[in-house]
Amino acid sequence: MPNRPLSALLATIAVASFGPAANAQASTQAAAQAKPAAPAAPTPKPIARAAIVQELNANYKVMDTDGDGGITSAEISAAQTRANQAAAAQYAKRRDAIFQKLDTNKDGQLSLAEFNAGSPMPPARRQAPAQVLAEVDSNKDQKVTIAEFTAPTLTKFDRVDLNHDGIFSVDEQQKTRAPK
Questions:
Q1: Domain ranges of the chain
Q2: CB neighbours (10 Å) of residue 3?
Q3: CA 102/CA 93 separation, integer angstroms
Q4: pLDDT tens-digit readout, 80-89
């Protein structure tokens, strides 16, 4: 299961990578989705590069199912299938909770079948495994090594770690979010 602060870091790195326009769009979307009585977002915390490396290595091991040190197109496909199944299970759980909440008098007038029919499963977003392989497999040997797997994220981390101390500090997070 991904670490929430690291997931937030990866989102921050993505925003920082795309510059002020994406940052402004993300801020606008966040403001539109915010509820007036919602509590303030948690304060950012420093994130160590070592923690990112640790999570990337763990994710790599999960994807490299045969443990041969290379992720193949088939392993990418299997990982995508597992992720889609987990997302579908989470969606079904939320959908069922919403049904229970909507059926406030518990008379069953809003049947689960009707609710499910009115709430279709969102289409799975999936990039072709061959395309993923082509983007990440820098030496084009049809396998993704740990170095190839970690390089894109670590390159982005190094770009936002302004003082290159291995920690994406709160100050650096604020600087990368600030419009330029």
A1: 1-23+42-70+145-180, 73-132
A2: 14
A3: 14
A4: 999 999 999 9
**pLDDT tens digit sequence for 120-142:** 788 888 889 999 999 999 999 99
**The predicted structure's pLDDT at residue 88:** 95
This prediction has a pTM of 0.51
